[in-house]
Amino acid sequence: MTAVAAAMVLAAGRGERMRPLSDVLPKPALPLADGPVVASALHLAATNGVARIAVNTWHLGRLMENAVTATTGLGMRVGFSPENSLMGTAGGLALARDRGLLGTTGPVLVVNGDGRLRLDLGPLFEGHRARRDAVTLGLLPHPDPNRWSRVVVGPQGTVTAIRPPGEVTPGEDSFVYPGVMVVSREALDGLPSSPGEIPGRLWFPALGVGRLGGALISGEWREVGTAADYLAVVTEQLAGENFIHHTAAVAPTAVIRASLIGRNVTIGERAVMHGSVVAEGARIANDSFVSNSVLLGSTRSLAGERVETEFRVGPIDGA
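User: That's the sequence. What structure does it adopt?
Assistant: Structure tokens below.
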């Protein structure tokens, strides 16, 4: 059991880098074999004893709410915070606070909804309790400083710099931020009720007064930022196996290899699927060959068509 009062899962963004997939489905709602992408953020909060969870929505909000509702379990109590206009990460956090979704006392766990997370948060909670910083970032050893920003931490656990991707300077002890932090009630209450982003509203003010902490945690983090990232995460998760949703109609002569076949999909006779995702009502015609591709929504292949390394979308029911 942890001392955080509530959790906020950030799920309202447009997902520009995920286009075209995010044109029809919010990035955190994209399907994986064990539920939507956002499921790991929800489970992370719930398995750490947080029963009160808020999720903000904006882009294709109804589809985002459907994905969360389908995931809810483990004693979770989820409240939605829909945004009429995009509030940004800090503005969305403040709006959920103003709506009473985050309680009135105690720190809050904040988790990005667009990553695949398997993390041990014990050191994060302990570090926040011990140091009483305004904000404490969960940090992992940096896998690629040239790809992601670097968080530099001093010997006492204080963040001393946040640097853009690039070559690490000699002696630099830098880490990657996987999208998990604890925000003190003081810092949360100080957020203005207007659009804004977390780095400018929380991180840099706390860093400037020596109250931005960093706690080294362990576990797995996979960014689901682009369509290629998404397909790579699905491929890694399947590990050569298939996932076929119970609502999918797959012809007996179809060949499915290392692919995710999602809700309400139709796969025609003699179609071949390899290393791909087909979901949310997509239709694969007879004799099609689909490889290393994602097809979402009311889109389809033509009979005998080869679809290779392509991201194809159509509208999704319920949007």
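Helices lie at 39-47, 61-71, 88-98, 122-131, 185-189, 198-208, 227-238.
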